[in-house]
Amino acid sequence: MPYAGDVTLSRMQLHRKLKALTNQSATEIVRHLRLQRAAELLRQRSASVSEIAYDVGFESLSYFTKAFRDQFGTLPSAFNYHPQRSACSDCQRALVSASAY
């Protein structure tokens, strides 16, 4: 994720731009991308749930579990191993748009 200084916008301008483009804050976008990565790793069964949670940047396993359940509707330990999906298109558009400024 680009920093506000990298795109010549103030922190607040970047926040407003991301919110306008995606209807999500920068924090929500980052959380969504982290959870998408966690889902990919869970599909690959590459590590335990707690290792994946920490690998993708969550410091609290209980918060990771809550956020994962909110996004995917299931606990990470019971996650269905569906074919890999790409990251959210709104998130990708926001990152591309933000880097253009």
TrEMBL record:
Keywords: DNA-binding, Transcription, Transcription regulation. InterPro entries: Homeodomain-like_sf, HTH_AraC, HTH_AraC-typ_CS, Tscrpt_reg_AraC-type_HTH. It holds the Pfam family HTH_18. Residues 1-82 form the HTH araC/xylS-type domain. This is Helix-turn-helix transcriptional regulator.
